[in-house]
Amino acid sequence: MPVLKEIQAPNGVIVTYHILSNGSIDVQLGTIRLHVRSYPNEEACLQGKPHACAFSELSFPISAIALSEEGLVAAFERALVGQEGATTPNLFYGGVLVADRSGTLQAAKDRAWSAIKAARAVAEQGNFTYDGGSYQADITRINGAVQLAVLAKANNVAHTETWTLTDNSTRQLDADQLIALGLALGQFISGVYAIGRALRVQINQAETIEAVNAIGWPA
Fold this sequence. Notes:
By secondary structure, this protein is an alpha+beta fold. The chain is built from 6 helices and 9 strands; from the N terminus they run E-E-E-H-E-H-E-H-E-E-H-E-E-H-H.
């Protein structure tokens, strides 16, 4: 079961949601060693963030573990919140054990949508086609070039730019072509977001965790 307690992790980050990732017993030393992953909150954990914000390692004497019918993991978790006298400082003492929702359908949907948004961000930086050539979706540079082209046309000034394509070939683009390039980029970005919206609908309509897990960004 996860632990709820607001603490400042060793790396200075404020975290509130903690998961026991693993535990081990050293019979010779008479100790148990617990490893904990910490997140800013439950939502960050359930959405499948790539990395925890902080990691902690604690040691307890074996005598601190009270086994029960719930099993060893439950005993480790109880020690995590109930044992003040650890051989290393126990930041989680006094925390509250809460129900683990990571296996629920909603948690699976949250994780899937988080993954889709990450894939969408990558796709936005991909390549798109304009006038038979492949261009990198450099939004900042293309928007800047479009603005210069618009200003040039407004002032009746001839304007061209040499543009490098994704295959490292180059093209001379005049003001009209630069504006058209910007429009092509806009259509590309709109298409990327349309894919994301369609996948969001699929995620929301999925009725099982297996169905959710089968949803991913198209190759």
